[in-house]
Design a protein that fits this description.
Blueprint: E1 12-13, E2 18-19, E3 42-49, H1 60-75, E4 84-88, H2 97-105, E5 112-115, H3 121-134, E6 140-148, H4 189-203, H5 209-223, H6 237-242, E7 245-247, E8 250-251, E9 260-269, H7 270-273, H8 278-283, E10 285-293, H9 309-322, E11 331-333, H10 339-348, H11 357-362, H12 379-383, H13 387-402, E12 416-423, E13 427-434
Parallel strand pairs: 4-5, 4-6, 11-12
Antiparallel strand pairs: 1-2, 3-9, 3-10, 6-9, 7-8, 10-13, 12-13
Length: 438
């Protein structure tokens, strides 16, 4: 942590009851984690995000090119300064999007990593570039996330069922005899996250349909200040609750839209950053922690996807690596693919005491004027969720606030922020960013 970090932040996390993170990771017993990346500090030099929405006049590479060029222009550098390119796109994972992008922005022969990692695709592309710099193989690199989804319908692993089937014989890896979609739960995304939310409500008091709806009410309100969001329309709580039901308790207005868009960042080593101009150094944002986790084996996850454990693990690793606690955060951009997801992640990211996510939203804790502003961009629910771009778009949003360049949606005095994405399968990425002196 740098010396110019705000000194008026409390060093004990009253929300969690734990002292400020520091020393040996109690959960891992000192075992090295994904957030324990040795080597030079890595900084964000440039950042850019396209307008999210429907782009019928542009293709995937047009969107990626816009964000890539925008990030390099923002950082005051060119493709000739890049030593590595990380490119994330889930729907086009086998298309060599990074190489296609090079043909538009400059083919300089640098290594390209094409990344697909569920909804954590963009964040994983960023982390790939970060680790390349940490390893000393690059001084500067470009990370791009892009997706063109159109109106793709519901996503997930749901099947068509077994209507009309008369013979039932074990088949496949697990010896299944029939589809269970819609019979024993669902693999469709609205249903998966609805189940996760209802499980939280069952286990903890103070959570009902209204608390989940309040999350969407907040994010739609926040979106009205973000010109890059897919939707920028405010809805009342009653309108959210009375919208078409998708999978209880998620109504249509509590679900993220399929979206087209791209986001990019330029990363640079601290050693290289010191050779750049004072203005470039002034606007640079430090990546204090980068954590990437997958599912550990849990009995619970054999029945329903467990979106909690890997998120909590990633958050603990990131707090430990950055030397901060949840109380130190000035804003958070988390993965609100559905309103139910955001509410349970208040608890998973330790933004509230255990079991008190309902109280947190009731008391307006995550509103832009609340205790810990969450998704001031409008979140995935309003901003949109172009899967390959989302992880980097969240980093763009926090970076913009830490620079003091967020305009009407600026969180005043923001110094430390956290970004979070999770994709089923599963993969979770958490980054902690800090406005610090080089």
């Amino acid at each position: 942590m740098s010396g110019n970090k705000t000194s008026d932040k409390k060093t004990s996390d009253k929300k969690t009851g734990d002292k400020k993170t520091g020393g040996k990771n109690k959960k891992t017993g000192g075992k090295k984690t994904s957030a324990d990346t040795s080597g030079d500090n890595v900084w964000i030099l440039g950042a850019y995000m396209t307008k999210f929405g429907r782009h019928v006049d542009k293709d995937l590479i047009d969107l990626a090119s816009e964000s890539a060029m925008g990030a390099m222009n923002d950082g005051g550098v060119t493709i000739h300064d890049m030593d590595v390119l990380g490119c994330g796109s889930l729907f086009n994972a086998q298309a060599g999007v990074g190489q296609q992008l090079q043909k538009q922005i400059g083919q300089t022969g640098i290594p390209v990593y094409n990344v697909a990692n569920a909804c954590a695709t963009g964040a994983t592309a960023l982390r790939t570039v970060l680790l390349t710099i940490k390893a000393g193989e690059a001084d500067m690199g470009l990370a791009v996330g892009v997706e063109q989804m159109g109106k793709g319908g519901l996503l997930g692993a749901g099947g068509k069922g077994d209507r009309g089937r008369k013979v039932y014989e074990p088949s496949g890896r697990y010896g299944s005899v029939m589809q269970v979609e819609g019979v024993l739960g669902t693999g469709l995304m609205p249903g998966v996250f609805a189940q996760a939310g209802m499980e939280y409500a069952y286990e903890h008091g103070g959570v009902d349909f209204e608390q989940f709806a309040k999350v969407a009410e907040k994010n739609h309100a926040h979106s009205t200040l973000n010109p890059l969001a897919h939707y920028q329309k405010q809805f009342t709580l009653d309108e959210v609750m009375s919208a078409e039901m998708m999978s209880y308790p998620n109504t249509l207005l509590m679900c993220c839209p399929n979206t087209d868009g791209s986001a990019a960042v330029v990363l640079v080593s601290e050693e290289k950053l010191r050779t750049l101009s004072k203005d470039q150094q002034r606007r640079a944002v430090k990546i204090s922690a980068s954590a990437l986790t997958t599912d550990p084996w849990t009995e619970h996850a054999q029945v329903q996807p467990d979106v909690n454990t890997l998120t909590r693990n990633a958050a603990k690793q990131a707090y430990e690596a950055a030397g901060v606690s949840p109380q130190d955060l000035d804003l958070v951009e988390l993965h609100d693919c559905f309103a139910t997801a955001e509410l349970i992640h208040y608890d998973n990211l330790m933004l509230c005491p255990p079991g008190e996510a309902g109280k947190f939203i009731d008391e307006r804790g995550p509103w832009r004027d609340g205790q810990t502003p969450v998704n001031v961009s409008g979140g995935l629910i309003s901003k949109g969720h172009p899967i390959g771009a989302t992880g980097i778009a969240n980093v763009f949003e926090v970076t913009t606030h830490l620079r003091g360049e967020a305009g009407d949606r600026q969180i005043d005095g923001a110094k430390v922020g956290l970004t979070h994405v999770i994709g089923l399968g599963s993969a979770c990425a958490v980054h902690i960013l800090e406005k610090a002196a080089v």
